Amino acid sequence: MKKIFITAVFAIGSLSAFAQEEATAVEATAKEAAATQDDFSEVAADELPEAVTAAVSKNYPTASIDKAYANEANQYKLEVSLEDGTAGTLYADENGNWIEM
Predict the structure, then answer these.
(1) pLDDT band at 101, cuts 50/70/90?
(2) I need a labelling partner for 33 at 20 to 30 A (CA). Which of 18, 24, 25, 71 fits?
(3) Residue-wise DSSP of the chain
(4) Which SUPFAM superfamilies is this protein grouped with (predicted)?
């Protein structure tokens, strides 16, 4: 009976160790995404890659890019406004693919 109890304790202990490692990995990924989001530097709109400006024109034909920012990973943060007065922020990679941040 003691052997079964000890085996159960070790099994539960090892499962909680794996869960802790997974939680740490998720936290690290979230921190990395936040750091990426904060590391943007302003760039001129005419310095944006053609793929990024084409993606904005295709998906948001009435949008104008008010400000543009870039980071070391060649990701772009775009502050855009629409003709109807609404504004928002878009994130794209250098190939014009949208990024969720």
Answers:
(1) confident
(2) 18
(3) -HHHHHHHHHHHHHHHHHHHHHHHHHHHHHHHHHHHHH--EEE-GGGS-HHHHHHHHHH-TT-EEEEEEE-TTSEEEEEEE-TTS-EEEEEEETTS-B---
(4) BT0923-like
